[in-house]
From TrEMBL:
One of its GO terms (biological process) is monoatomic ion transmembrane transport. It comes from Xenopus tropicalis (Western clawed frog). The keyword Transmembrane applies. GO terms for cellular component: membrane. The keyword Transmembrane helix applies. The chain crosses the membrane at residues 21-42, 54-75, 96-117, 182-201. This is Calcium homeostasis modulator 2. Its main location: membrane. The gene is calhm2. Keywords: Ion channel, Ion transport, Membrane, Transmembrane, Transmembrane helix, Transport. It is a multi-pass membrane protein. The lineage of its organism: Eukaryota, Metazoa, Chordata, Craniata, Vertebrata.
Length: 319
């Protein structure tokens, strides 16, 4: 039974590792949907006033989307790799198309949450109804009472709708929600077509075969996992040595004592080595052999940009 459970855990681990970006984007989208639902229930209150309705409705859709977009950029490791690359090497090793695609990759991952927010807002229709109600044309509705202007129309999305206009409230909201949901579905279609075209362009322009690209993905995942785990152990051992030198002893539990004794650390890596493995990396080849990351390139003791006369370059990112 234990063996079966272990094999199943390994299977799910490999499944999630192979689809980490897709699953992460899905979780971001689900989290955004939940946040949007909470916002609609708790924080959304249409002002029911001409001029204010329009600004409030747009703000309810646009401002959270902008905040989520900026958060997505800040939480993307590629952003800070790109900043480091610009600061240290001014992107001199990246061609203009590759640099454009690097920015596109960062922006593409950052728009998942804001696009989800905008789509859900449009499908729900509350913000759109609030924003558009004051611009309704009374003559578009049969037997609509005369003498009612934007002040009255702006109240269709609120509870205090004028009594004479209550019979028209359901039809007005239905029309506005139809427009809102139409825009939402149109946005979904545009995004889906864009993703499809980008994926096609990516695979058509990539110099790597499908299997080599899959291998590169596996390599990046393994290198990142091993690097982070090793860095954690290295930092703990180095910190333990420093604390011991200061106090004369260091308080470690049993597992930490085994780690310190098993992995002796004398000193931290020098700054030039950190600089060599930091920054954006594009796929390179040296004399026909692939260089899958900056760390891989550093381990091969290759200086410069690591490109031979018949180099291949792609904008797939390696952290």
């Amino acid at each position: 039974m234990a063996a079966i459970i272990s094999e199943n855990l390994k299977f799910f681990s490999l499944f999630f590792k192979s689809r980490d970006v897709m699953i992460f984007n899905g979780l971001v989208a689900l989290g955004t949907v939940g946040s949007q639902e909470l916002f609609s229930v708790v924080a959304f209150h249409c002002p029911c006033s001409p001029g204010q309705n329009y600004m409030y409705g747009l703000a309810a859709i646009g401002v959270p989307a902008l905040v989520l977009f900026l958060i997505g950029i800040m939480l993307n490791n590629h952003t800070w790799n790109l900043v480091a690359e610009c600061r240290k090497r001014a992107l001199k090793n990246c061609s203009a198309p590759a640099t454009f695609l690097l920015f596109g990759s960062i922006l593409g991952r950052a728009i998942v949450a804001p696009v989800t927010w905008s789509v859900i807002s449009l499908l729900r229709g509350e913000a759109y109804v609030c924003a558009r109600s004051e611009f309704l044309n009374p003559s578009a509705f049969q037997d609509f009472p005369l003498g009612y202007g934007p002040d009255s129309m702006a109240r269709f999305s609120c509870r205090d709708t004028p009594t004479a206009l209550i019979p028209f409230k359901d039809e007005v909201i239905r029309r506005l929600k139809y427009e809102s949901q139409f825009l939402g579905w149109l946005l979904i279609a545009v995004i889906a077509c864009t993703i499809f075209l980008v994926k096609c362009l990516h695979h058509c322009c990539s110099p790597l075969s499908y299997h080599q690209e899959a291998y590169w993905t596996q390599y990046r995942s393994c290198e990142k996992d091993l690097f982070n785990r090793t860095a954690e152990v290295h930092a703990k051992v180095l910190a333990a040595n420093s604390v011991k030198q200061f106090f004369g002893f260091v308080a470690l539990d049993k597992d930490e004592k085994e780690i310190v004794s098993q992995y002796p650390v004398d000193e931290a890596q020098p700054s030039p080595q950190w600089q060599e493995i930091t920054g954006v990396y594009l796929y390179r080849e040296n004399k026909g052999f692939p260089l899958y990351s900056r760390l891989h390139k550093w381990a091969k003791k290759i200086l410069g940009n690591g490109m031979d006369a018949e180099c291949k370059e792609t904008a797939l990112l390696a952290v």
